[in-house]
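User: Please predict the structure of the protein below. I'd like the answer in structure-token form so I can feed it into my own downstream comparison script.

Assistant: Understood. Taking the following sequence of 260 residues as input:
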Amino acid sequence: MAGPRVRFSVILPMVLVIGVFLVPASRTIIIRGWAAVIRPIQGSFGWAQSRWAWPWDASRLARQRNDLQEQNAHLLKQLTDAQSQIQSVAASTTLHALLEPLHHTTVLASVIGYSPDPGVQSVTIDRGATDGVQTGMAVMSDAGVVVGKVSSVGDVTSSIMLLSDSQSSILARINSSVRSPGVVKGDQGVSLRMELIPKNDSVQVGETVVTSGSEDRIPPDLPIGTIKDASTRPGDVFQNATVESPQTGFHFTVVAVIIR
């Protein structure tokens, strides 16, 4: 029995010694082996995570882009409104300065609409019968000239037919020593012409054309434009003239209705 005990007593210390030296190495080997195994798994997990996250990020970016576009549109509208208000204030100030020497009672109005028919030259303003506006009254722009006449009136809005409309007309005269009378009409919606000017009257380029005062509700001497050229055809009793206005098209936002 002594033999086996001696062998066990010798083997056990050897195992312990070998274990002391082998355990750290085994641990390192195990850790490295585990890392080699887990690394591809971690890479696959990271790839899958990025694939799952991408649609969510794209959706978030799309929402942010839409929000920024809405904010930009809102700011642009605010800027446009502010510019319109500034222009209206400037036009109102100019009109007041132009009309003050004429000593007329006027009503300032903003243009709030335009005719949808391209063949009709008319605008809608935000003043009506409750403001004293009546049909046939003259309307001036901040260019300092008559641009039309009131064609219809509602309680709080009115329609203005512009002088450039082919159906419009206003009694006028040339502001000269001769004071030649005539009728200013629209010429195909793009310009003005003065008809029925006495044939023998001298008409000079650059002379001012004003209202004659012969119409109800339109006072005299309101500026309309200036003579650009005059012509007479053989056999005609009257002569015609092209009238140039500083106000072209619909380029105005504020007008003054001449009440009296």
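That's the full token string. The helical segments are 2-99.
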